[in-house]
């Protein structure tokens, strides 16, 4: 005859209850996967046209956070439903080339060095790197080398800084090639003076789109 020990039964029931609770806890959360692969455990509160609002799952009583949709790859909701945000890119290479052309045309028409409207930027690309050359008031390049920027490695996009109807600034923290010989890149704040507020927003939007495309490609 086998005798059941009460303490053993209680321990087994407690462990079973703990396992069930752990499973429920781990599943009842939304998972936001960013373009760069980072995953955030969250509770999504609101999805709007260009951004989402969420709370961090380990701090539901804390503040709400805002994230732009162009930084998100997908969201896996607690009920298992998956919402993807990057599936509208059918041919990544074509999209990249179209965006490059838009960036070149817009910067070459409206982009200037930060300190003056007398020195324009001339934009081009070396591979996927954005190259900016400063032109003097006669349209002559001050340096043939220019500066290369890697928009697959953006630290932060700032909002457009509006100064007047005919002046605004685009500010982006991005990797810049500091030394070509050693292939050394460093964090740099690109500040671009733009001769119009709508044009500044167009440049910023194109750069954000280009960043998203490069991250999706890689």
A few lines on this structure:
The protein contains three helices and 13 strands. It has helices spanning 6-27, 92-110, 197-217, and strands at 30-34, 39-47, 51-56, 65-68, 72-76, 82-84, 111-113, 120-126, 129-135, 147-157, 161-164, 167-179, 184-194.
How are the SSEs ordered, and which strands pair?
Layout: H1 6-27, E1 30-34, E2 39-47, E3 51-56, E4 65-68, E5 72-76, E6 82-84, H2 92-110, E7 111-113, E8 120-126, E9 129-135, E10 147-157, E11 161-164, E12 167-179, E13 184-194, H3 197-217
Antiparallel strand pairs: 1-2, 1-5, 2-3, 3-4, 5-6, 7-13, 8-9, 9-10, 10-12, 11-12, 12-13
Helix pairs in contact: 2-3
Count of all domains: 2
As a whole number of angstroms, the C-alpha radius of gyration is 25 Å
Question: Which structural category do the helix and sheet elements fall into?
Answer: alpha+beta
CATH class bucket of the largest domain:
Mainly Beta
Shape: elongated
Number of helices: 3
SSE series: HEEEEEEHEEEEEEEH
